[in-house]
Specification:
The protein is α/β, with parallel strands linked by helices. The protein contains eight helices and ten strands. The structure holds S-adenosylmethionine.
């Protein structure tokens, strides 16, 4: 039974996913391009969200390649002639059979309590020479994420509210079974699985109110509203942050994403 703390079907689900797309697709696609040969590749995208990376992959692999995208909720994933979309609960069901030349998953492994057994299962599905890329928010970046470069002049106290909210958000994800530290262990786990060429790259860019980072943050804030209130973060404080996230004078230092890649040795 899935335990994901958020829900793509929520009224704020589409904004949450498109915020991630706007924040990170450029970086994720550059990481994929530099670590994999995509023409003719068989690719798997896990926890595909709105399918933006899967769709990009479907173009990149060309007519001889294929892409499989899986998620608990596939309703946001558009169709493409080279894209196979499957509804799959990765907590209950094994990943699709390989072999795959590329496996990519962004902001999903952290949420899956079976992550330590799922990662080797994914590595088993890599073809010789195939690459896996796992990306998640970097836990060492929590203070950066909680820091504002600039806060709106009115109302007073937005920077302090934001700092408190970001730490509480971390706690709420932890209470739902997310492990933000997992990404820091992925390099060692990939080496234990016999992969080579293991690299970790962390990327971050500041963003302002009204930009994709703020759509993502606001959608998370709105989805967490009832639980925030239960944890003593008042409804009115949520409203203040929701408004601030639309204000171009709100400027976040950003939320670093850590991207870890490894390659199965060629046969
Ligand atoms: C934070 S979103 C990331 C979406 C996308 N990878 C991105 O970065 O834009 C997490 C995704 O993982 C999916 N997910 C969560 N638990 C899952 C599970 N047990 N099995 C499959 N997908 C799951 C969610 O439905 C959601 O689409």
């Amino acid at each position: 039974m899935a335990n994901y703390a958020l829900d793509n079907a929520n009224a704020h689900g589409a904004a949450h996913l498109s915020g991630l797309t706007g924040l990170f697709d450029e970086f994720s696609c550059a990481r994929i391009t530099e670590s994999s040969r995509l023409r003719g590749a068989r690719a798997l995208e896990i926890g595909a969200g709105n399918g933006s990376v899967a769709l990009w992959l479907a173009d990149q692999v060309g007519p001889d390649g294929s892409v499989t995208a899986v998620d608990l909720d596939v309703s946001h994933i558009p169709s493409h002639e080279r894209l196979t979309v499957s509804r799959l609960d990765l907590l209950e069901q094994p990943p699709p059979d390989g072999p795959f030349d590329l496996i990519h998953g962004r902001c999903v492994m952290t949420h899956l309590p079976n992550r330590a057994t799922l990662l080797p299962a994914l590595c088993e599905r890599l073809a010789p020479g195939g690459t896996i890329i796992i990306e998640d928010f970097d836990p060492f970046g929590l203070e950066r994420a909680a820091h504002l470069l600039r806060a709106p002049a009115e109302p007073a106290g937005v920077a302090e509210l934001w700092h408190r909210y970001v730490h509480l958000r971390q706690q709420l994800f932890r209470e739902s079974g997310s492990d933000r530290g997992f990404i820091t262990r992925v390099p060692e786990l990939l080496l234990q699985d016999g992969l080579g060429d293991v690299q970790a790259v962390t990327w971050c860019r500041s963003w302002r109110g009204g930009e994709p980072g703020s759509w993502h943050a606001r959608a998370t804030l709105q989805q967490f509203r009832p639980r925030l209130v239960e944890h003593g973060f008042p409804d009115e404080a949520v409203d203040v942050l929701v408004r601030a996230l639309d204000d171009p004078d709100f400027s976040s230092a950003g939320r670093p994403l850590c991207s870890v890649s490894g390659r199965r040795p060629p046969a």
